[in-house]
Structures are given as structure tokens and as C-alpha cells.
Amino acid sequence: MADMDGQTSFFATKRVRNIVAVIVAILVLILLFLGAVPASLMRTAISNELRGASDRDVDIGAVTRDSFFSYSPVITVHDLRVAQPDWVGEGDFLKLQKISARVSILDVILGDARPDRVSIDGLDIALVRNEEGRANWNDDGSDDDDGQKSRGPGLTDLDIVNSHFSFTDRKRELTVDGPVSVNSEDGLRAEASGTFLKTKARLVFTGGAITGIDPEADYPFEMSLQSPALKLTANGKMQGVLNTDRFTATLSAQAPTLKNLDKVIEAGLFGTQPIDLRANVRHKDKDWFIRKLSGSIGRSKLSGQADVLKREGRTKIDAKIDAAALDFDDLADDAGLAKAAALTRRIGPRVIPNTRINLSKMGATDGQIDFTVDRLLSRRETVFRSLKGQLAMDHRVIKITKLVVGLKSGQMTGSLQVDHRSGAPKFSTDLTLKGASLADLIGNGDIVTATMRGRVKLSGSGDTIRAALEKADGKAAMVASGGSVRATVAHVLGQNLSGAVEEIIDDPKARVPLRCLVANFKAKNGVLTPSPLAVDTATSIGRGEGRINLDGEKISLTLRGGTKGKSALHIVDPIRISGTLNAPEVSVAGLGKAEDAEKPSLGDVLKVATKSIGSALGIGSSKKQDEAFIQKPKSLDCAAVVAAAMR
């Protein structure tokens, strides 16, 4: 039995040795075959590789190799033609008389040929990109996987002679063509002319010589696009020969508008006033890292840095922008400013900005931008002086938090939000005003001097801030605790004609304390109604009624008051506020405009006096009015109404 077991073990061992021997023999044959792969088989592999996913026509005159046996032979392709894909139309993607390259046979068989020595003679290549961004050099029309590491061409030697290229990019509106060459003396040079945004353009790209160098070594390059629509230059180094996926460069750009630069870099930027910008950039696969950004947009001066990353089909931004000076008008091009001016001529000046908040095109963009503006510029008188905050974008929701707006006096703090997740953009505010002078806010001189506080919580839907607030719900409140009022105005507020005339005669500049001023408005569908609107001075109290319609910014308010002291003669007419937020008109109880109340004309005084005497005699007055005059007004609970308004 033992002998039988031994024989079985012997035959099993012999069988294994035979199998191993056969495998080794097959591997040797495969290796020998790979080292001497016929050029005819290589022709098939090359043709399949060039045909690509679009199944474009490929013609190859002949394929030869420089030696009978080598795992890295020099392969030469003669009379090559590759047709354009069907979506481009008729014509050739490339034609060339001869191309020689040293390649790994195994890479060719596996469809991943990466030549390190290339010689090209008689190349004519037509690069095309359509309006949607599909390119004829990228068969499947899609980007590489986010974050995929680029290998680059891996070239150690490259020569190109007697060659020409054309580039038609319909998305960028750029069309150029010209010669391209690479040699050991002059390096790489591609020089082309054509048009960019319907203006004449010249494109020049130069690089170092590609002769016996390390394919992973830094490769210097320079690029220049010169056009009336954009002057763009780049000077830098690629991480490997012709590895456009990884490079660092110093960029400069001058253009009539930022939108022209965006045509090249495709970052979703907008129209502006003329730009002059510089930056150091690093490009790694799909990511951009921008440092030392500086320059101007119009008369605005800015600096900053940004990281722009591509992840899972989304763009993620982390940026910081500092502006020594910023004019918001610089963030619109001439066409946009002209459109805004035409709208102003048609509907009149407005306080609420018509800033577009429909940023749905940035739906795939997330991130955070910290911004600081040291000085706000404006072509019109404004109380705004500085600005800083943090803007965050997250799946179609944009929030501005840590907002601080410096005013001529005081500041405004709080947050803003725009929600694009469904329907029209939903705009909401939560802003707090502190330490602002009423004179600075409404330009009333020293008629009323008070330090204001305020709270604005409004929300509405629309494509612009103006459209959203025209339908807004919420509240808007301004309050003051303390200050002073011209005595004449205080008496007019109390509808006390005798007191007002006495102050005009004795001391027209006299002042009385202001206990509180409360302008608390509830908003419903863009209409603000007082809740309450009241003024309490040492000598009088006034209460308001009416409405402010944010659709058109129209004001229709009436202030009626009473005196806290004795009044020999009451003013019948109340104070009326009309006009618009941009140009309010105040009629002071029949004495004319507010600024004229301290020096009314004799005719105005006589008119008011006559009407008041008639009221005292019961002529032209109502019982309700008379009772209002007879009853002494109650002082406001200033602490309570101010606290309620600021909640």
C-alpha cells in the first residue's frame, strides 16, 4: 500500500512540473512575440485607439518599426488621416505625413500608449469645440473623473516640423489658426491669428525645447492672447512636459469687462467695468489655487486669494477678497448700467437696489467667501462707508452672515439669505441698525437730532432684491430714545399754532427734548403699515397712520398730534408725508415743506391761522377733531414701545 501511495505522489509531482514547464514556455513565447510584434498588428491597435468612442474614420497608409526585436521599438505611422466625429461635420480632425514614436509594446496592446520620443512631420490638426463645450479631442465629451491624477504625455523628445493647427471654440467665441513647431534650438512655438469675440486676435504659445529631458521635470511655458476684447498673458511651469493639467503660472488680464475673461477661464463671472488683474495660479488636475490676486475693476481696487476645487460634479470655492475701495456700479458693464439708467428714467430713482439675486446658474457651486471693503464708493450721495462679511453657498442656498455695514454714523449688522432650491429666489433679511444719526439717514439737517436704532426682518420672492421686497412680509422698525427737536417743529407736531408762532418770534432756534421716536412698520405683501408710528417730545405727541408701498416706494403717511401744554389756537391740518422713499415730501400742517417750517411765509401763517380760528369757532371742523384738540394727549410708554419695535 505504501508503494502505491509513493507512486501516486511521484506522478502528481511530475504532472505539476510538466504544467509549470508548459506555462513557462508559453510565457517565453509571449515575451518573444511581444518583442517582435509585426507592424501589421500594431497598425490595428493604433487604428482602434485613434478611432475612439465616436467611431470616427481612420486611414493609415503604413506602419513600420525600426528593429525586428524590441519591447520599446520606434514605431512610424505614414500618411495618417483621422476624420472629424459626426457631430462636427465633414472634414479631417488631423492629417499627417509621418509620425515616429518610441512606445512600450505592452502599452500599445493594452490601449494605453504613452510615447516618450515623438517626431512629427506634416501635421495638420483641426481642434473644434461646440457651444455646449464638447470637444473633438475628447471622444466621450465628458470631463475626467474629479481629482483623477494626470499622467501627462511623458515625453523625453519631441520634434514637429512643417505643421499647422486651427482652433475653433464656439463656446469661447475664439477662432485662430497658424503654424506650430518644436525643435531643439527654438523649443516649442505655436503662433496663430484669428478672432475673439468678433475682434481680431493673436495667440502665441511658447515652451522650452523637448530634447533628451526628464519627462517629469518642470517645463517652462509662456502664453499670450492679444485682442481688443482681452489681453491675457501667462508665464509659468508645467509639472512635466506639456502637462496642461498641472502647472503654476503668473497671469495678467486686461479687458473691457470681466465677462470677456470668463469666456476663457469659464468660471461663471459677470459683466463689469474694465479690468486690470494679476494673480499667481496653480492648476492641479481639476482644481485651481489662486494667490496674490490684485488689480482693479473700474475704479475699485481689490486683492485676495481663492481655492476652486472640483468634487463629485460640483465646484467648491474657498476665497478671501479685500477691497481698498469698491463701487458697486463697477460690477456691471456698460450695457447693464445703461439698462439700469433707462429703468430709472422710466420709473424714477429708487432706494431699494435692483441687484439681481437669481444666481441659479451657480447651482453646482458651493463654498465660502470672506470679504472686506475698506471704502465704499458711489457716484451719488450715500451714508454707506464700509462693508465686510462672509458669503456661504451650499446647494443653491446663499447666506451672507457676520455682515457689518459701516455708515456715515453708526453701523448695520446682521444677515441676508437667498434660497434657490425651488421656484423664484426667496430673499430674506435680518438686519440691526445701531448708532446712526437721523440727520445722516434722512438728511433733515438739525430739525431732529437723534441717535437711531433699527431692526429689519423682511422676506419675499423675486429675481432681484427690489422685486422680492415689493412683495415682502415682516417688519421694519427705527427708534430713538432721546435727542432734541426744534421747538417750532415740536409745536407744529402738537398742532399748536400759538406755540409755534411764539417760538418763531422769540427764538426760532430753540429746541426741546425728544423723549422717543418710534417708526415700527408691519409688512404684508410689500405694504408697510404703522404699528405704531409715534413721536413724543417734551411739549407734544404725534401719532401716525397710513402706509408705505414698497412696490413703487410710495409714501402716504399722516401725523396728527396734540400739545402737552396750553394752546390758544390749534392747527387743523396734520403733518403729511408723501412722495417716495428717495424723495419724501413733508407738508408741515399747512406751513409748507418741513425745511420751511421754521421760517414760514406770512401768507402761510395767515392761512393756517384763519383755518384754525374757524375751527375754534366751529366752522369747518368736526366734533371728532374738536374732541381730539380738547383732550390732552397721554405720554407714550417709550420704554415699552421701543422694546416692542426692536424685538
The total count of helices amounts to 12
- Give the distance, in angstroms, between the N- and C-terminal Cα atoms: 102 Å
Radius of gyration: 39 Å
Q: What is the 3D shape?
A: elongated
Percent of residues in β-strands: over 45%
Helix coverage percent? 10-25%
Number of strands: 32
Descriptive tags:
647 residues; 12 helices; alpha+beta; 32-stranded mixed β-sheet; elongated
What's the topology here?
Blueprint (H helix, E strand, L loop, with lengths): L1 H34 L3 H13 L6 E8 L8 E10 L8 E11 L2 H5 L7 E5 L2 E6 L27 E13 L4 E10 L3 E10 L2 E9 L10 E10 L2 E10 L6 E10 L2 H8 L9 E10 L2 E11 L2 E12 L2 E14 L6 H14 L17 E9 L2 E2 L6 E11 L2 E11 L3 E9 L6 E12 H5 L5 E2 L1 E11 L3 H5 L3 E9 L2 E3 H7 L3 H10 L4 E14 L2 E11 L2 E10 L4 E10 L11 E5 L4 E5 L13 H15 L6 H8 L7 H9 L1
Parallel strand pairs: 4-6, 5-6, 16-17, 16-18
Antiparallel strand pairs: 1-2, 2-3, 3-4, 3-5, 6-7, 7-8, 8-9, 9-10, 10-11, 11-12, 12-13, 13-14, 14-15, 15-16, 17-19, 19-20, 20-21, 21-22, 22-24, 23-26, 24-25, 25-27, 26-27, 27-28, 28-29, 29-30, 30-31, 31-32
What does this structure look like?
The chain has 647 residues and is of the alpha+beta class. 21% of the residues lie in helices and 45% in strands. The chain has a 32-stranded mixed sheet that branches. The longest helix is centred in the first third of the chain and has 34 residues, at 2-35. The protein is elongated, with a radius of gyration of 39 Å. Mean pLDDT is 82; it is low at 24-35, 143-147 and 605-630.
